[in-house]
Amino acid sequence: MIRFLDLKAINERHRAEMDAAVKRVLDSGWYLLGKECEAFEREFAAYCGTRHAIGCANGLDALKLIIRAYGFGPGDEIIAPANTYIASLISISANGATPILVEPDPATYLIDPAKIEEKITPRTKAIMVVHLYGRTCEMAAIGAIAAKHALKVIEDCAQAHGARHDGRRAGNLGDAAGFSFYPGKNLGCLGDGGAVTTNDDELATRIRALRNYGSDVKYHFPYRGTNSRLDEVQAAWLRVKLPYLDADNARRDEIAARYCREITNPAITLPVRQDRQPSAAVDGNRHLSNVWHVFPVRAAQRDAFQAHLTECGIQTVIHYPIPPHRQPAYTEWHALSLPITEVIHDTIISLPISPVMTDDEVSEVIAAVNEWK
Ligand SMILES: *Cc1c(COP(=O)(O)O)cnc(C)c1O
To answer: Is the CB of residue 156 below 6 angstroms from any atom belonging to ligand 1?
Structure first.
């Protein structure tokens, strides 16, 4: 069987280095907010090109901490994509603020900049962009809207580690960004982990305190904070894996290029390659590159298509089957009509694109997709 994402095989490649990293932490006798976390924060900030990276417990917390640190809460609105993983929206509502959902561009599946301005009210405080599936949003257009209305731009980078946009990395395209290091992400640890990146010194200082009960110096609490720390073992593992991220993303891109070239079944809609999307020209941007967290294709008969691939021994995953505004957790959105988001959720399916797939496995997937009627 071709696994969607063989995490064991992905981590196996680094076993010796990861074993050594655990030993280093064990020998140090220091397990939280120590040298490994500090070193990873330095290395990850350098990778993203930001002044700061602050480790925390997971991706949801990274986003929650940003919103909390800005002081956005009840009565405030934050513009967010309707087509996203629910964590993006939970990070807003968990702070008591209200997510205002915006439909995606049907070509890119990402928040449509042309539909943002009509949603701005005197209560709007920020725009959250989600670089979903590893593709960066249209930052020039979104940045211009944010500047015009004095809004913060918060990036959800949980699916976009290493993506480039106009020569800069995801995580350095807005005012602050949240990353997840959940095992299945492009940079994943062996449990939960997350980070905030930002160039804002003051925000970084506040988030550093907030993640540790609101403490700036030991046993002094300017804020009522929370406990959201990246532990030393996870940080040490992330330090092992970070230097391999670009190579893994390049392998994903190679697989994506083959899918785009060799999948010829007219019943399957391929994702638009980012350097070809119409908005690339609007952005004046020749340096966009996806990192292909997943490779989403669309099929009108999605469930039958998935069953066919399962029969061929190919594991697929649907990102995502039910849109946030149709979830029982958010009854206040049930009356919303978001037809583009709904069509995407009804037709989308992700093919395997893991960095440990072999060329033969990629060929097998292509053949199985092309033979489906
Ligand atoms: C994974 C993910 C998150 C949440 O990250 P966790 O580490 O699981 O909390 C947030 N947003 C998006 C788009 C994600 O894919």
So the answer is: yes
